[in-house]
Amino acid sequence: MQQATEYFNKSPELIHEVSDLLQRADVGISNLDIRQIDLVDPTTGNPDRIPHPFVTHPAGDLPPFSMPLGLESSGTKRVFVLLMYLLESLHAGTPAVIDELESDLHPHMIPWILRLFTTPVLNPKNAQIFFTCHSADVMSRLDKTQIMLVEKDPDDSTSSAWRLDELQGVRRDDNFIGKYNAGAYGAVPEPV
Predict the structure, then answer these.
(1) At what angle do helices 2-9 and 12-24 cross, to 10 degrees?
(2) What is the pLDDT of residue 39?
(3) What per-residue confidence (pLDDT) applies to 45?
(4) Which pLDDT does position 26 carry in this prediction?
(5) Amino acid 154: pLDDT
(6) Low-confidence residues of the chain: pLDDT under 70
(7) What is the bridge-based pairing of β-strands 96-98 and 129-131?
(8) pLDDT digits (tens, 9 = 90+) for 31-52
(9) Residues 6+ apart with CB under 8 A from 56
(10) How many angstroms separate the CA atoms of 183 and 192, rounded?
(11) Three-state secondary structure along the chain?
């Protein structure tokens, strides 16, 4: 989180963009700002001033309140950190590579993240996202040419990967999730 804070702190435009995206992600945040806070280095006892993200929440009839982002849920903190990689990719038109995209996220956040890359106004440089995911639900959001399956051989622990459209008989309108869960495509773990 500190690395993302320092990355966003470099530019007011980035802070504004992240604040706007966090609001759109519907995590109950109405604003994000980065403040300088004073800390004491526990090893030296010397004071240190570092940037730290704070979020503002609406409170109904009461005044809005701010709190450190570090006190938010793991999902909100994960979105904040992911946005560092995603915005860097979107701004530069380079690939974003994310391992276990769904980690700590509500399942509805994955389509929101994918829309960042499929909405031309948000992705004018045609950046791509490559990610691993254990949530089969994401298959319903992708085309068969966009899905790679990976299967580990239990005998020698090697992994094989193939694109879904490389399998015979897979149609664009198939129920990918249902067929995957039924084992039609392989790559389904079978714990014993």
Answers:
(1) 120
(2) 87
(3) 87
(4) 74
(5) 84
(6) none
(7) parallel
(8) 999 999 998 888 888 888 899 9
(9) 29, 30, 31, 32, 33, 64, 65, 66
(10) 16
(11) CHHHHHHHHCCHHHHHHHHHHHHHCCCCCCEEEEEEEEEECCCCCCEEEEEEEEEEEEECCEEEEEEEHHHCCHHHHHHHHHHHHHHHHHHHCCCEEECCCCCCCCCCHHHHHHHHHHCCCCCCCCCCEEECCCCHHHHHHCCHHHCEEEEECCCCCCEEEEEHHHCCCCCCCCCHHHHHHCCCCCCCCCCC
**Residue 104 — φ and ψ, nearest 5°?**
70, 5
Sequence-separated (6 or more) residues with CB below 8 Å from residue 122: 90, 115, 116
Domains of the chain by start residue, with CATH: 2-131 (3.40.50), 138-181 (no CATH)
